[in-house]
Amino acid sequence: MSSVITSSRDVSASAVQANQAAASARRRTAGLGIIGVLVLMALPLVAGGYWTFTLGLCFANAIAIISVSFLVRYGGEVSIGHGVFVAAGAYTVALVEKYLGLPLLVSLPIAACVGALLGVIFAFPSRHLSGIYLAVATMALALALPEVLLHFSSVTGGYEGVYVKLDALPGLSKELQRYYLPLAGLVSVSILLRHFRRSRQAAALMLSRTSPHAAESFGVRRSWARLSCMAMSAGIAAIAGALLSFSSSTVSPNSFTLWTSIFLLVGSVVSLYSLSMFGALIGGLFLTMMPMLLAGAGNWVPILYGAALLVVVLGFNALPEAWRNRLMGGQA
Length: 332
Prior knowledge:
Layout: H1 2-42, H2 49-75, H3 83-100, H4 104-123, H5 132-151, H6 153-156, E1 162-163, H7 174-196, H8 200-210, H9 212-217, H10 222-248, E2 250-251, H11 258-270, H12 277-293, H13 301-317, H14 321-327
Antiparallel strand pairs: 1-2
Helix pairs in contact: 2-7, 2-10, 2-11, 2-12, 3-4, 3-10, 4-10, 7-10, 8-10, 11-12
């Protein structure tokens, strides 16, 4: 009897030590995250206009990459059409400004709702598709998008697109607005997802992905999980599109081709499907900077781009497991 009590005390002590170690790791990660955000906030004081503009685009692209990674992690599916939801957010902001004269801070939540609604509209008829079939269905969306935008050119502005010119934060220069608003969006999305990962809803989605029959027995229907995943992922993508349109000041069909969706998937792979801010930033930097760095390479661009992708992915996978888990923001 006494040995059983002693064993129980040992187990309890081990559990307490494990919880304390986990709490310490979380505090350390949060501290590093705060320092990183402060560094990014101070960067415009030393960086020129080119870097401020480029990093603003990078932050918006990082949010779009998170949206793809969210679908992979919680839905277990790959999308080759997330450019559609990014475009939905971008055009919502541009059209709300054009026809209603409202700035980004008003149109941003509208864009998120439009994106989530589109996600549900797409996910409902395709809720029984998975794997390569769902990927092809999303690719069909991406292929059709430019033609749809051009067909309604009287509204969308056709090839010329629509400009986004209104200030979102009066009193702050346009250059700094294009930097700080995408940064604020990235930080907010990362924090919200960090809390979401600890919620019962996240656990239900993960259970539905890993053990659908067990999830059904607990009352979690797979169709509900699929709709929820796609709606949240599409909503995040629309937020990215809204901030991207503000940072680039314009939206046009050429910005949302099939390649846009493919590059978002590539960025998600480079980030190791991370939902953390740091991991998404790596993907965003790759997505934004690599085409600029290879701009003068002519016909060598696809080869060098592919080589760079291989180096990044193989290099990340060569890291110790603990480092990779940290970059990925922990297991979902």
